[in-house]
């Protein structure tokens, strides 16, 4: 078994560690051959393995540079089952929000404009750099952030930011016990219905929202549906599987589990719900109410911009 | 002379014309397009019409899918406010329209590429005008870059 991270925060790897003592069951069934956060296996060691010699690879993180892409290809060749693990590998995730900017905008913000940067010589990272000792190389930074299946063939998707550890254990045990696996390309570890199905908050039949608020702007009553209270909740477009943990913790759903089956663009689907919750009928009132939504595209596509129909800002 | 006509035809065939997806509600705008037809009104052949029962049925996914698959613009047609066959569907459409416009602004898509018009069943002439105007605007704006940029992942 192998676990690898692309453009990720490390949370997915920690969620694998969160299996706690079940880790003993895991290593009873499988040798961990590659896991940068915990083991010192080098890339060259993985490249030297025989093709299809790894039974299961959990690839977390998006593909954002040439190193991520190279390892995606290597691990695809070496693995029998490749799982896109977590929101970033599944849909692009938080790093995918970089598709709202160009590479040049990002580099210029980081290396020139940010208030804490002093860079009078306008130094930028170079792919290759010659030093007396030889040539140093760093990965190429890509213009677009991709999800894993835009780069290589993926067998399964296990979504979440991070995925619930219980779901991982279930999936792992299913694989080692030789149980009947779902068809290739399935999203696993999820239910078939929206978050709302499991949510215990009370939803009104006739929504009537004057304007939208950010969660800190209102005092949540803890009982009624967030959308009824004018807070954007992604629950109705998001598939269940996490146990509505965010809403149980009094925070609106952010959509990390990905779309409900049948939905091709979860941001568009939530736009539909959010817009119709408004009560305004006059065009100017509607425009005013919609203006109260801060960073609409970023909120609706928080985890899924690279997976959406229009996967990046048009230039 | 004949050859000249032939050449002209080839040139016309090659010239780019906008592709406009028109999504019309069954009760008003779609009926208006029928009226425009039977009245023999002329308007540019730039639209592909899809009929939906109510403009309130308009799912934003339709719009994003059309843009990503090469539509240069989208025209939505519904009943005038207050006249919806299902009472409030067109208000729902109007709210979605403005939210999609907000999204489009962030994605750097020109707002002219998505237009909403209330055209009643008797306004066949208005329909022909709107399609004419829109064809002109989109011709000036040029071909949409969305399909090509979505298809090509840049590394």
Structural class of chain B: alpha/beta
The top-level CATH class of chain B is: Alpha Beta
Biggest β-sheet strands, sense, barrel of chain B = 4 strands, parallel
Structural class by sheet pairing and helices of chain A? alpha/beta
Report the total helices of chain B. Answer: 6
- CATH topology of chain B, which one? Rossmann fold
Q: What's the end-to-end separation of chain B, in Å?
A: 52 Å
Sheet of most strands of chain A: 4 strands, parallel
How many domains, in number, for the residues of chain B?
1
Outline the structure in words.
The complex is a heterodimer of chains A (315) and B (155). With 315 residues, chain A is an alpha/beta fold. Chain A folds into 2 domains: 129 residues, NADH:ubiquinone oxidoreductase-like, 20kDa subunit (Rossmann fold, 3-Layer(aba) Sandwich); 113 residues, no CATH class. Chain A is 30% helix and 12% strand. In chain A, the strands form 3 sheets. Chain A has a 4-stranded parallel beta sheet. In chain A, a hairpin with a 2-residue loop joins strand 5 and strand 6. The longest helix of chain A has 13 residues. Chain A is globular and about 65 Å long. With 155 residues, chain B is an alpha/beta fold. Chain B has a single domain, classed as Rossmann fold (3-Layer(aba) Sandwich). Helices cover 48% and strands 15% of the residues of chain B. A 4-stranded parallel beta sheet of chain B has the order 2-1-3-4, sandwiched between helices. In chain B, helix 2 links the parallel strand 1 and strand 2. In chain B, helix 2 crosses helix 5. The longest helix of chain B is centred in the middle third of the chain and has 18 residues.
